[in-house]
UniProtKB/TrEMBL annotation:
<dbReference type="InterPro" id="IPR057476">
    <property type="entry name" value="Cux_N"/>
</dbReference>
<keyword id="KW-0175">Coiled coil</keyword>
<feature type="coiled-coil region">
    <location>
        <begin position="412"/>
        <end position="446"/>
    </location>
</feature>
<feature type="region of interest" description="Disordered">
    <location>
        <begin position="462"/>
        <end position="514"/>
    </location>
</feature>
<feature type="coiled-coil region">
    <location>
        <begin position="203"/>
        <end position="276"/>
    </location>
</feature>
<feature type="coiled-coil region">
    <location>
        <begin position="301"/>
        <end position="335"/>
    </location>
</feature>
<feature type="coiled-coil region">
    <location>
        <begin position="125"/>
        <end position="172"/>
    </location>
</feature>
<feature type="domain" description="Cux N-terminal">
    <location>
        <begin position="7"/>
        <end position="116"/>
    </location>
</feature>
<protein>
    <recommendedName>
        <fullName>Cux N-terminal domain-containing protein</fullName>
    </recommendedName>
</protein>
<dbReference type="Pfam" id="PF25398">
    <property type="entry name" value="CUX1_N"/>
</dbReference>
Length: 514
């Protein structure tokens, strides 16, 4: 018989009897044997009782036999039923055992093949020793593999912990940034709303003040024009009246000169009359008339002098009134000029204040910033391109402060940079883990190959042990048990490395003597 055929015969016999599980069936077979023995004992007891009942039935008379025939038949029927059940149980036990042993191979062929293999026992022992040495080396490799696997698991646990920490940290930072941006947005919105209300109020107040100032300026201008008109009219009237007074004064002066000349002539006449009075009474009437004329002339002259004095007083009053009107006009002009200057200064101050306050463009820009803050939801926005004014501006112009959305974009990009760095480190760690996993996979494949080889050696040793003599049975069983323990230890290590890939290395070899 060829070695392969011998191996096949031994393997088939071992596989069958290993699957037959004779030790496991012993309890069932023992139970069946005890049941059969108990049934046989009960049958013997009932048979003796039936024999005694039959003897008693035969010893009775006919009338008594007729009366006891029914119970006797029941005993016989009960015995028949018991025997039937016993036969069925025996048949069932026999058939179950027969079915289990129907396909059993002939153990003599396996024993012959084992005896043939026993001749090769020294070579098998030598090969077994070499395999044991190789198994020891494999144990060392597996221990190294186990250490590497522990390292890989530790790295995987650290990586998972790092990932969870990073996720928690990123989530916390995002929540913190979101809360900060929400508070900043609320504060900016409130500030912008307050500034908007204040600007509206101040703008309305400034417009009211400007309108009032314009009204005051218009009123002052109208008053100035009215005062100038009145002053010009008063000056014109005063000048006209002064001209009339001058004409009257000239006429009065001419009249006064005429009256003076007439008075002088009358005085001369009166003097002549007084001189002539000394020489005659004839001249008395003429002198009286001359005196009367002189008295009337003096009275007229006095009246004219009074009129001239009155005219002079009126002229002086008109002059004083004109001077008063001129002074009033000058004071009114001065006051109006001061009011106009004050209004002009107030207008300039209001214009400066308006220039200092936000313009319409700035207010629109502020609204746009507020709209941007409302639209930003922690998404990456495009970087704002610098304007030409900022690029071409001189160094004296101060740099414009970054807008809130630019600050938010910078923060988000910084977080993205940190995330990319962490991702790169994570990818590097994953690369190391994958390389270690590949090494573990290769070592597992090597261990699987060694396990298959050990299984074959175990099969060979089992076949050799089945065919060995009883003299070498003890040593061979000890060596086989030792190798089985080593195989089980190797299987346990493989199970720790990969529970799914771990398979039984070999089944325990049944002792053919059992």
């Amino acid at each position: 018989m060829e070695p392969s055929a011998q191996d096949e015969v031994i393997r088939s016999a071992r596989d069958f009897w290993s699957g037959f599980d004779l030790d496991g069936r012993r309890a069932a077979l023992d139970s069946q044997g005890l049941e059969l023995q108990e049934a046989h004992r009960r049958t013997m007891t009932s048979r003796k009782a039936l024999q005694e009942a039959t003897r008693a039935f035969k010893a009775q008379g006919e009338t008594e036999q007729v009366a006891s025939l029914g119970p006797l038949l029941k005993q016989y029927q009960k015995e028949v039923d018991t025997l039937t059940r016993r036969a069925r149980a025996a048949d069932s036990a026999f058939l179950s055992l027969y079915k289990a042993l129907y396909e059993a191979p002939d153990p003599s062929q396996a024993l012959d093949a084992a005896l043939a293999l026993a001749a090769d026992k020294p070579a098998v022992k030598e090969a077994s020793r070499a395999e044991l040495e190789e198994l020891e080396d494999l144990r060392e490799e597996i221990s190294t593999l186990k250490n590497q696997d522990v390292t890989v698991r530790k790295l995987e646990a650290e990586l998972e912990q790092w990932r969870s920490d990073m996720d928690a940290r990123v989530a916390q930072q995002v929540e913190q940034r979101e809360a900060e941006m929400q508070s900043l947005l609320q504060s900016r919105m409130m500030e912008v709303a307050d500034r908007e209300r204040a600007s509206d109020d101040r703008l309305a107040s400034m417009r009211t003040q400007l309108e009032q100032s314009k009204a005051v300026a218009d009123q002052a201008e109208r008053r100035v024009f009215e005062a100038e008109r009145r002053a010009e009219e008063a000056i014109a009237a005063a000048r006209t009246e002064q001209a009339l007074l001058a004409a009257d004064e000239e006429s009065l002066e001419a009249t006064q000169l005429a009256l003076r000349s007439e008075n002088e002539s009358l005085r001369r006449r009166l003097k002549d009359v007084e001189e002539a009075q000394r020489y005659g009474e004839d001249l008395h009437a003429g002198s009286r008339g001359a005196r009367q004329d002189a008295a009337s002339s003096e009275m007229e002259l006095a009246q004219l002098m009074n009129v001239v004095a009155a005219e002079r007083n009126a002229k002086e009053q008109y002059r004083l009134q004109v001077e008063n009107l001129q002074s009033i006009m000058k004071s009114e002009q001065t006051r109006t000029a001061e009011a106009a200057a004050a209004n002009e200064a107030r207008l300039k101050e209001l214009e400066k204040e308006i220039d200092a306050r936000p313009s319409t463009e700035e207010f629109t820009k502020m609204r746009q910033e507020l709209q941007l803050l409302r639209q930003v939801e922690f998404n990456v926005l495009p970087e704002a391109e610098p304007s030409a004014d900022s690029l071409n501006g001189s160094g004296d112009i101060p740099a414009v402060a970054p807008s809130p959305e630019q600050l938010l974009i910078r923060k988000l990009r910084k977080l993205e940079g940190e995330m990319l760095a962490h991702k790169r480190r994570s990818e590097a760690a994953e690369g190391q883990v994958s390389s270690l996993s590949e090494e573990v996979k290769q070592l597992k494949q090597l261990a699987e190959e060694r396990r298959i080889l050990i299984g074959r050696l175990e099969d060979d040793l089992s076949a050799a042990s089945n065919s060995s003599s009883h003299t070498h049975g003890g040593a061979l069983h000890a060596s086989k048990a030792k190798r089985s323990e080593e195989a089980e230890a190797l299987e346990g290590i493989l199970a720790e490395e990969d529970p799914q890939a771990a398979k039984p290395i070999s089944s325990p070899v049944k002792d053919p003597n059992q």
